[in-house]
Amino acid sequence: METTKKRTREEVRAAFRAFMREKEEERKAAEIRLELYHKKRLAGLI
Amino acid sequence: MNTLNLENINKQAPYKVTVDTDFPHLFYFHTDYEVDYEICIKSNDTFVPSGAYALDIRNKCNQPSPGDPKFRQTLMAIVEEFFRLNNDVMLYVTETEDKKQASRNRLFVRWFNTYEHRDQYIIKTAEGKMNGQINFLAIISRKDNPNLAQAIAEFDETISFLFDPPEESA
After folding, report:
1. Band of the pLDDT at B49, cuts 50, 70, 90?
2. Model pLDDT, residue A30
3. For chain B, what are the domain ranges?
4. What is the rounded distance in angstroms from the CA atom of residue B30 to the CA atom of residue B75?
5. Predicted interface score ipTM higher than 0.90
6. Tens digits of per-residue pLDDT, B73-93?
7. Which of B17, B44, B118, B161 is packed most tightly, with the most Cβ within 10 A?
8. Distance from CA of A9 to the nearest CA of B (A)
9. A28 — contact with chain B (CB < 8 Å)?
């Protein structure tokens, strides 16, 4: 089994904040993708 | 991640699921309530360094979803196909400022707990505050995952670091 580096509280919290920032950016990108999906669906392409 | 079989998903899903051919980890469907959804299952090692997949449920402008059993069944069809082909760990993580939204965030876990094959899975949740935000985390895995013990230990360690100690929570 692969061993992982020992993490610190600060590293975990920083990684969590980065994850949440990325999640928010992804949510904004998803709005554009969902709009495209909506248009394709209305056009009968899906 | 092994690519999910769309045909298998659509055998179980009441709503027709499509996949983005350029991004096979993104799934789409449209509900009877005129809401379009994107379901994302993406590799992420933030919470479980030995490897996990984060589940995200997105719709436009965070539209609220009324109680829709077809939505639940469609989502679970995707999740079930993920676990059929990937004996890995799935994470569901949300962050919110208000308790009402926090309750909605826990909905996925409540659905999972009523899933017909629930007995084949282990699910562990954690909830706490970090810098004033309520964080909700869930780890889900098949019980026969050979890396389950390590994944749970890593998840527990993450939680122990992540949340404010009780005396810091206002």
Report:
1. very high
2. 94
3. 6-164
4. 12
5. no
6. 999 999 999 999 999 999 999
7. B17
8. 5
9. no
Which CA distances in Å does B155 have to B11, B100, B163? 33, 25, 12
Q: Which residues of B touch A4 (CB under 8 A)?
A: 49-50, 154
Burial class (CB in 10 A: 0-12, 13-18, 19+), B77: buried
Residue A2 has pLDDT above 60, yes or no: no
In this model, does residue B29 exceed pLDDT 80?
A: yes
From edge to edge, which strands make up the β-sheet containing B36-43?
A: B18-20, B23-30, B36-43, B53-59, B89-96, B133-142, B121-130
Considering the segment(s) B6-164 as one domain, its CATH architecture is: 3-Layer(aba) Sandwich (3.40)
